[in-house]
Amino acid sequence: DDFENGLGKWITSWGLTETGSVSATHSAADSPDANYPANANTGMTLLHPIDLSSTVSPVLTFWQKIGVHGSDHGYLEISEDGGFTWKTLQDLTQTWRSTWEYVQVDLSAYKTSQVKIRFRLRDNGDGYVTWGWDVDDVEIKERDMATMAFPFSDDFENGLGKWITSWGLTE
Questions:
Q1: What is the rounded CA–CA span in Å between residue 68 and residue 121?
Q2: For the residues of the chain, what is the DSSP string, one character each?
Q3: Beta bridge pairs of residue 79
Q4: What is the pLDDT of residue 37?
Q5: Closest among 65, 129, 68 to 98, alpha carbons compared
Q6: Rounded to an integer, what distance in angstroms lies between the CA atom of residue 121 and that of residue 118?
C-alpha cells in the first residue's frame, strides 16, 4: 500500500501526510505534521487478514521514518486470530531515523496462517514526545531470491535499477 488512495485498507487512528513519502506524494503517520501526544496509543491495522498458506518465503516490506523518545515504543505486530491477540515482530524504543529506511521482516513462521499486521505507537506518559512514526509502501510478498554475479560493481550510469533506495541520481 503506497497510501495514494487513502487509508481504506486499514483500521486506523493514523492519518496521511504529504510532508514526506517514498513513492508519489503520501505516507501514513501516527501524528501527521505534529508530535504524537502524551499517552498516545495509536495503531494502524490491516482491515482484512492476508492468507499466507500458499507462500514459500513471505516477507513484509515497508519504508519507515521514526522518532520515539525514551521508553516510548513503535511496535510492529502480527495476529494469527483476526486481531484478538498480537505478537511483537519489532519493538523500536529510543529510536531516531529521520530519513527513510527500508525494512524487511521474515514472515515464514506464519505461512500456514491468515495474518493481520499492525503498526502501533505507544507513549509512556512521561511528557516527552517527538515526531512519531511515518510508514510508506507496505507490501507482503514473496522474498526476492534473485542474486547478482560476483564481483559486483555499479557506476550508476544506467540508473538505480539494481538498488532499493529512496534516493535519486544527480548529474
A1: 8
A2: --STT-STTEEES-EEESS--SSTT-EEESSTTSPPPTT-EEEEEESS-EE-TT-SSEEEEEEEEEEEEEEEEEEEEEESSTTSS-EEEEEEEEEEEEEEEEEEEE-GGGTTSEEEEEEEEE--SSS----EEEEEEEEEEE------PSS----STT-STT---S-----
A3: 116
A4: 80
A5: 65
A6: 10
User: What pLDDT is attached to residue 125?
Assistant: 82
Enter the C-alpha cell of residue 95: 529510536
Q: What would the pLDDT profile of 50-77 be if each residue is shown by its tens digit?
A: 999 999 999 999 999 988 888 889 999 9
The predicted structure's pLDDT at residue 151: 66
pLDDT tens-digit series, residues 123-169 = 888 888 888 898 999 999 988 766 666 666 676 767 676 666 655 65
CA separation for the pair 83, 47 (Å, rounded): 10
Q: What are the C-alpha distances in Å from 135 to residues 19, 56, 138, 151?
A: 12, 26, 8, 34
Instruction: Say which residue the cell 514526545 belongs to.
Output: 129
Model confidence pTM above 0.90: no
